Structure formats: C-alpha cells, structure tokens
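ok trying this again, last paste got cut off
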Amino acid sequence: MGRNNQAPDGYQCPYRNACPHLNGQSTTRTNYLLNDAEAETYRNSHYVKCVTEENAALRADNLRLEKEVAELRARLQVEHSSRFKPNRPPPGDLSHPRKRGAPKGHPPWNRRPPEHIDRILHVPAPTTCPHCSTPGLLPTGQQQEQLQEDIILQPKTFVTAYRHDTAFCPICRRPVFQTAEGELRNSQIGPTAKATAVFLRHELNLSLRNTEKIFKHLFGFNFVPASAMAFQQRTARAAEPLHERLRNQVRCADIIHGDETHWRIDGKGAYLWFAGNNNFGCFHIDHSRSGQVALHLFGSNFKGGLVADDYAGYNPIEPKDRQSCLSHLIRKTKEIEAQIASLPPSRQDPKALRFNTQLRELFRDACHLGKLRDTGAISFTKAKSQIPAFYRRLDLICKKQIPHKESETLRQRLIDPKRDYHRLFTFLRINRMPPTNNYAEQSLRHPVILRKIIFGNRSNLGASALAVNLSILHTAHCKNVDPIAMLQTLLLNGHQALISVLFNNSA
C-alpha cells in the first residue's frame, strides 16, 4: 500500500514527543533547530561574503604597498649609490678594472727643475756604505747631483713707519698729510696681509680661525679672527662698484650660464646664485629662490642666451634663447634606469628601460654633434641642419605613454612646449652656446665646499661681502690675473684701477 503525501485531517503522530527516527528527539524541537540552522547558514554566508571582499581588498592594498616599498627601496639604493661609490664591482660584473696609475710604458713624470740655484753644498764621498755598512770605501771621482727645492720660513713681520710731514689746510682748518705709495691709510695692517687673508678665506676655503693660525705660525703675524672678517668686508666695500658692473655685464652678455645652490644665513635657508661665462662671473646670495631674484640678477630686458636647468625661476626673465642642460637630462635617465633595475625582475618595465636608453642616446648624439662643431670637424650650417632630425627622433621616442611613473613624468616634461621641448637643441643654432650647464655647476663647486666648512654666514652683511669677493676673484681667474695682486691694488688704489683689467672683452 502506498504512502500518503499528506496526513489525514486531525491526525497527530503518537511519537511527536519522542520520535524514534530522530533519536528520541521531539519533532517540535527538531523543527526549531532546523529553522535556527537555516538562519545561521544565511548569516554565515553573508559573513563569509563580507570577509571574502575584505580579504580581496587587503590583498590589493598589500600588492600596492609592496610595489611602493620596492620603488622606495630602489630610490634609496640609487640615492645611496650616487652619494657613496661602491668599493667592489656589482654582482655578476666579470670585467677587470684598469690598474691604477699610469699605463705601462708611460714616461715618468718629473718635477720641473728650478730656474736658479741659491746654494751649492759639497758632500764628501762616504767611507762607509750607507746601505750595508761596509767600511774602507774608495772614492770613484764621479759626482751625483741632486736638486732640492725648499722654502724658508721667516716668522718675521715687516714694519714700516710712515712719518708724514703735515700741511695746514685753510678750508679743512686742520693739518693734513698725504698717503705714501704702498700705504693703506688709517690701517695698522698692510694691504699685503689683508689681501693674503682674503685669498686664504675665499680661494683656499679656510675658516677665519685657521687663517689666523697660518699668519701666526708661518709669518709671526698676530690678529684675531674678527680682524680677518673685517678684511674681507673692507675688500667687499671697495669692490661693490665692480660687483654692480659685473651684474650689468650679465644683462648685456650674449650667452650666460645660470645656476643656484643652497646657502645658510644665520642658520636659515638661503640660496647662492651664479651668472656668468668664460669671461666673468657674478654671485648673489638671497633668502629667496623665486623669479624675482632672477629678475634682480638678469634684469627684465635680458636679450641674450641662457643656459640653465629646467627650474621655473628663470622663466620671468624671458631670455631670447634658452638651452636646457642635457647633462641633467642624461643623469635623470640614468637615475630612472638604476631605479628600475633595482626593482624585482617581475616589476621591471622594459618599455621604460627602452625609453630612457633611447633618450640618453639621443642627447649624447646631440652633445657629440656640438663638440664636432666646436672643434671645426663639421660646419655650423651642417650642425644646425640636424635639428629637425633630432626632433623627429624625440617625437618618435615620446609618442606613446609609459606605464612607469617617473618615466612618464620625464616624457611629459620633454613634450611640453612651455618647458623643455623648444630648449633641447637651441645650442645647435647659436654659435658658441654649449649643450650643458657644466660651467655654472663647476663655478658653484668651490662655494659649495666653502659652505660645508663654514656653514654659511651669520648675517646679511657677511653674505653680501662673500658674494662680492667671490665675484671679483672668479673674474680674476677668468682674466688670468693674480688674485693677491688684484686685491692689493683694490685696497690701495680703489676699484677704478681694476676696471681696465677685469672688463676688457667681458661680453
């Protein structure tokens, strides 16, 4: 007999309180347990879904953080390698470094013999060998000559007493006297000592205390470090008109290199600016790095060619022609490549590597072409005719976007007409303009070393004096003028005596 699908009306199971099929459990309790289980399963499924979504979000965030950590480690490694050169070759580099020193077969370097001999000292032949102490040596009759050049330290100062005959001036209504040749009026320290102290400070990067020590131990000349500071301020006051004239030379020059670096004034951040070329140089220290300082230095009507980096502070001067430093761009591509190479192989972008390699080759080819033009290997017209070809290569390299962030930033910078695009190959259409700003960087290298020694200036007056002295000394080097003799002339005769020396063919 078949089983009914539904129980008859009014039927109650006699085993509802203890069903043998439910292990003696009540059917009512069993139904309650089933309902609770279904509800719990729903809650658990919802919870599992939420946890799954949360885990997926955490995994994505973890991947993003791992990528950022890898990039930061790569940047740190590149920054560390740029500051601290490795003593060992990188892993996998099987190339043997070149032996230090001159190559084999190179003629030895000898000191230039002195132009005169002040003393001849005869040394008799030894009777005992100085090497093995063998006695009873017989002279050979030959001579061995050795020239030895040395200095004579004379800790003695040269004191001059200027005894002036006076005359009465009816206009001034007092006795007056005239200044003798070589006399620095109203000064107990002569011009040679002051010029030497300024030279040691600005050319040899000595501190004021070390300058005082050198004068004390080598010349027997005593003064306090504050006097050495007064020396450089006096030369700066005398050379202030020369510094102003150098700034005017900057505004009238055909080609100018510009750059800036960090400085300190009384412990606060400042900037040391440089503008110049192979004929002269002008330094300026300011608290700001804005375009207003560039206007103060270059003027608002600068019509020459400017060679500088991509810093926007030079934009307000609106030069007639501007060349971006290709060395900066080449170094940038190397830094990006080193950063990418430091990443795990799975995260390295081959497109970014190829992009930076092609850019570096492009800029190097342009620099090589400029060198050929400057040496006369090719004509100026032929070098200029290669500009469209270089731009076609640049457009082809920068045609597509780069997934790598820093490479894409560099690409956007190069294709931007308001930034580097029209400034990359300006040097090929202007004669004597270099493709790099290495001259300005080399000119700032000496003050940067001085900054690391003296940590900047304590006052605006000291910073201004330093900028003036650096300017005239740099210009003296460009003109092959003896700096100490120039400072002596400046202290004795004023700035007018140096105009013909420092400003002949300065443009």
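PB: full thing came through this time. The beta strands are 167-169, 174-176, 255-265, 268-276, 281-286, 305-308, 321-324.
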